[in-house]
Design brief:
The complex is a heterodimer of chains A (about 300) and B (about 400). Chain A is of the alpha/beta class and about 300 residues long. Chain A folds into two domains: about 110 residues, NAD(P)-binding Rossmann-like Domain (Rossmann fold, 3-Layer(aba) Sandwich); about 150 residues, Succinyl-CoA synthetase domains (Rossmann fold), CATH 3.40.50. Chain A is built from nine helices and 14 strands. The longest helix of chain A is centred in the N-terminal third of the chain and has 13 residues. The model of chain A has no long low-confidence stretch (mean pLDDT about 95). By secondary structure, chain B is α+β, with helices and mostly antiparallel strands. Chain B is built from 13 helices and 19 strands. In chain B, the strands form five sheets. In chain B, strands 1, 8, 9, 10, 11, 12 and 13 form a seven-stranded antiparallel sheet that branches. In chain B, strand 11 and strand 12 form a beta hairpin. Chain B is elongated, with a radius of gyration of 26 Å. The chains are: A alpha/beta (about 300), B alpha+beta (about 400). At the A-B interface, helix 4 and helix 5 of A face helix 4, helix 9 and helix 13 of B.
Chain lengths: ~300, ~400
């Protein structure tokens, strides 16, 4: 088992023939991901990377049975691409696109709230999702991953790679690694993904990588306390960040004293999440803890 | 992007938001008589145009009953180093002041619109306790703060604004006026892709409601559809930060002495944090982006080195799709090109890491290699200390 993505998924790529879409679709295919086609309006009927190209997502669903969409459409058009996928009945939408206006995501969330599909939107501004050994739908370097019992959920890209690399080096494989993205309004929250990991039989523990800004980590801590039986290890980036400045990610900003490193650490500790202070020790801390008390907390 | 009060007001005026009579912005006292004429008869208010809040208490806003008082106020404010509770001990030099007709204030309320991340929609945050800083109010009297989320597509509806008016105990005969104003602000918020629009205070005067102050922040990601905003100067960023942005590098200057170059925003923050844990202080946040090629690495080095405080540089690249040997070659070429003088610590991880490390080790350039991030941070802190002492400028 795993969450969200498996070798049974039927993935299409929106923005399939563009440079980013092509490059990363190829990498995903090389990993053995079940990509069944792609969508580029006006290029329908062509073949790209030995897969069919469709004009619309509706057509891709109808003809290729797509249930998952990986989006590489440029920011000004990304909201439309997400809504098209949702309207076509795609189950899981993963939007990699960086730089989407916040208002567009507010509109997208409104749109999704009255649809029965998708069951889940991941991103935007995220590295995507990988279920090691089964499928990769994203831009992460596949080789650092290995199948195993640890779920990973993160707001950041390369920081996730750092954590996964440490886990793999400590012989701790991953069930599924989910990048939820660094924007103020993400499609899915930490809480959403923790809930999935909690009910996934393969996942025995979760590593959660947050950063300053917003209150998603505090909400996740509250959820953990109420509903989770599996141990969670948390790291928060941005302890040294100045207030009021956006640290690269649109969502990573401390405003009016809210969303600070200290408040997140405190909420997580109080809820019983194991807080890792030193980024370079994530793998070691998880490893030590599992040797001391295998399986669950 | 953050806008100054007068810029925010210029944006609000055409949308029917009632504002005090404006005399415009002046940079020297010489422009004052004309500004006073434009603002109409006194008394007037002279207001420092800086991004920090708390200007009044710090002496950046002055009331003038006569032209002579106005002149004295303008002279004292222009050029002053304004230190408010938001400037963290450092002052901001005042380069211009806004001249406005003063209003007779009967009552003040707090009104703002921002993005509710959790609700994924805009939300009006208002309070009958105006004039106060909202952070302070939230701490001392959280029950006095009203929150009203609204639809980002439909905007603020009449009944929503009306309910808010009654909750704010606005007298019945002024509710219509308030509804119109609240809706106008919501329209501006949505139309310009704002992340914050704050009117504090929103004043009741004998002549009607007036937005006495305005704070506006827009979403940088939406600048592509707001050419008129994209042309404005970003007052918050330094010239170095703007230069970096042009090269598609995300850079924020800080006050430490270890320059950082990292790929990815989260890892860049994590690297800064690790430096602090190791006892050092980062000189900057820098996300060089996904494709850390020679050209970008060179630009990044050039930007980092323009900060004379930098005593050592830590490069932390997690080569995912980009291979480490390519990155190492890029770093070496860039080091040669910028004739790097400060110690350089490099931590590479990812595909072809061994080839990358061999390349760095076999180079005649002195590059300190690190095994992992902790090792890298410790080596960078050490290098910065040694270099600081050598120059007799330990910090």
């Amino acid at each position: 088992m795993s969450i969200l993505l498996s070798k049974e998924s039927r993935i299409i790529v929106q923005g399939f023939t563009g440079s980013a879409g092509s490059f990363h679709a190829k990498q995903c295919l090389d990993y053995g991901s079940p990509i069944v086609g792609g969508v580029t309006p006006g290029r329908g009927g062509q073949t790209h990377l030995e897969r069919p190209v469709f004009d619309t997502v509706h057509e891709a669903v109808e003809k290729a049975g797509a249930d998952t969409s990986l989006i590489f459409v440029p920011a000004p058009f990304a909201a439309d691409a997400i809504m098209e996928a949702a309207d076509a009945g795609i189950d899981l939408i993963i939007c990699i696109t960086e730089g989407m206006p916040v208002k567009d995501m507010a509109v997208v969330k409104r749109f999704l709230s009255v649809k029965s599909r998708p069951r889940r939107l991941i991103g935007p501004n995220c590295p995507g999702v990988i279920t090691p050994g089964q499928a990769k739908a994203g831009i992460m370097p596949a080789y650092i991953h290995t199948p195993g019992p640890i779920g990973v959920v993160s707001r950041s890209g390369t920081l996730t790679y750092e954590a996964v690399h440490q886990l793999t080096r400590n012989a701790l494989g991953q069930s599924t690694v989910v990048g939820i993205g660094g924007d103020p309004i993400p499609g899915s929250s930490f809480t959403d993904i923790l809930e999935l990991f909690e009910s996934d039989p393969q996942t025995e523990a979760v590593v959660m990588i947050g950063e300053i800004g917003g209150s998603a980590e505090e909400e996740a801590a509250a959820f953990f306390k109420r509903k989770m039986s599996k141990p969670v290890f948390g790291f928060i980036a941005g302890r040294s960040a100045p207030e009021g400045r956006r640290m690269g990610h649109a969502g990573a900003i401390v405003e009016g004293g809210a969303g600070t490193h200290a408040s997140k650490i405190k909420a997580m500790r109080e809820a019983g999440i194991v807080v890792v202070e030193n980024l370079s020790e994530i793998g070691d801390v998880v490893s030590r803890s599992r040797q001391a008390a295998p399986a669950s907390r | 992007m953050k806008f100054l009060e007068y810029e925010a007001k210029e944006l609000l005026r055409p949308h029917g938001v009632p504002l005090p009579p404006s005399g415009g912005v002046i940079k020297t006292a010489a422009g004052l008589p004309a500004a006073l004429r434009r603002a109409g008869k006194g008394p007037w208010v002279i207001k420092a145009q800086v991004l920090a809040g708390g200007r009044g208490k710090a002496g950046g806003i002055k009331l003038a009953k006569t032209a002579a008082q106005a002149k004295a106020a303008a002279k004292s404010i222009i050029g002053m180093n304004l230190v408010t509770h938001q400037t963290k001990g450092q002052g901001i030099k005042v380069r211009e002041v806004l001249v406005e007709g003063a209003a007779k204030i009967e009552r003040e309320i707090y009104f703002s619109i921002l993005i509710d991340r959790r609700g994924a929609c805009p939300v009006v945050v208002a309070s009958a306790e105006g004039g106060m800083e909202i952070e302070k109010l939230a701490e001392e009297k959280p029950q006095a703060i009203l929150r009203l989320p609204f639809d980002p597509v439909a905007g603020l509806r009449d009944y929503e604004a009306r309910r808010l008016a009654f909750d704010l105990k606005i007298p019945a005969q002024r509710v219509g006026e308030f509804v119109k104003l609240a809706k106008a602000l919501a329209t501006v918020f949505i139309q310009y892709d704002c992340s914050l629009l704050e009117i504090n205070p929103l004043a009741f005067t004998p002549k009607g409601l007036l937005a006495l102050d305005a704070k506006l922040i827009t979403d940088d990601n939406a600048l592509f559809r707001h050419q008129e905003l994209a042309k404005k100067t970003d007052h918050e960023t330094s010239s170095l930060e703007r230069e970096a942005r042009k090269a598609d590098i995300s850079y924020i200057g800080l006050d430490g002495n270890i320059g950082c170059m990292v790929n990815g925003a989260g890892l860049a923050m994590g690297t800064m944090d690790t430096i602090v844990l190791a006892g050092g202080r980062p000189a900057n946040f820098l996300d060089v982006g996904g494709s850390a090629d020679e050209e970008r690495v060179t630009r990044a080095f050039q930007i980092i080195l323009k900060d004379s405080k930098v005593k050592a540089i830590l490069v932390n690249i997690f080569g995912g799709i980009v291979k480490c040997d390519m990155i190492a070659a890029g770093i070496l070429a860039a080091v040669k090109k910028v004739k790097l003088k400060v110690p350089l610590v490099v931590r590479l991880q990812g595909t072809n890491v061994e080839q990358g490390r061999r390349l760095l080790a076999s180079s005649s350039l002195s590059v300190v290699q690190a095994e992992d991030l902790w090792d890298a941070a410790q080596k960078a802190v050490q290098a910065a200390q040694n270099n600081g002492h050598r120059n007799g400028a330990a910090s």
